[in-house]
Amino acid sequence: MQVRKIGRRMRKNYAPEEISAIRAGVPFASVDQARRVRRKLAGDENFKRWLDNRIQFGQIADIKGDWEMYRRYSAYNKLFSPYLGKSIVDELGEMAWRKSSKKRKKVPLEILDDGAGHGVFLEHIKHLMGEHKVPVRTTAVVLYASEDLKARKEEGSVDEIIENPVETFVPRRRYDAIFSMLGGIEYSLMHFTRETVLKYAHALNAGGIAVIGLDIKTSYRQQMEEFKRRVIKSFEKRGFKADFYHNPENKAEHLPQDVLIIRRIR
């Protein structure tokens, strides 16, 4: 890990959580993406109102309880495994083997779920990886923590809960795998989606992966191919490999139609 010297000027210009992230080894590129958005949104009353509406919408969905059925490992795996070429468990198992071989000891995989809901997916993945003797550390990023999510933290199936809008969230550490299925990235302010995805991507460990399921608005479909080329090229310049996939049949099964997979090469 790169040693970060925190000078007086940095302590003056960076918020405490940003300095903590830098000290934990989070790349400046990731922290700075968050800083830029935070500055733009600071004191923005429209953003505050929009955020309140988002929280109310989520609370109503929680009361109904119908959303969590799509937060299980089986739903994530059904969506993502065709594009990974293997199951999520197998993908993470291979990643754990490479990481442990490099460190010459078993090191926990750092797994983050963006828009984790009640933490069902993280609970499932921790159990499944445990069956393979692979230790994992799970992080849930949510707008607000439900009682079910807090209970899972008490039980140990979720290690950390971060209550923060995805637009202004600062990664606490580097992650090996980041998942987002109709999570904060899907519901982020449209003009900050690029910054949010880049922030997550830069927070990946080398060899790490970000797997994102979202529904790109129909009005953008005609420009989709050009959009894909620009995104893929943009990530390649920064040391990533990115691929976009579209499957309209997913809609009938309440799954996202679009999948973006980003791998950190270096």
Describe the protein in words.
This protein has 266 residues and is α/β, with parallel strands linked by helices. The chain has one domain: 3-Layer(aba) Sandwich (Rossmann fold), CATH 3.40.50.150. It has helices at residues 8-13, 16-23, 28-41, 45-64, 73-84, 88-103, 120-131, 147-155, 184-187, 193-202, 224-237; strands at residues 109-114, 136-142, 160-163, 175-181, 204-214, 240-246, 258-264. It has a seven-stranded mixed beta sheet with strand order 3-2-1-4-5-7-6. Helix 8 links the parallel strand 2 (136-142) and strand 3. Helix 3 runs antiparallel to helix 10 (193-202). It starts with 7 loop residues before the first helix and ends with a strand. 34% of the residues are buried.
How do the strands and helices of this protein lay out in sequence?
Blueprint: H1 8-13, H2 16-23, H3 28-41, H4 45-64, H5 73-84, H6 88-103, E1 109-114, H7 120-131, E2 136-142, H8 147-155, E3 160-163, E4 175-181, H9 184-187, H10 193-202, E5 204-214, H11 224-237, E6 240-246, E7 258-264
Helix pairs in contact: 3-10
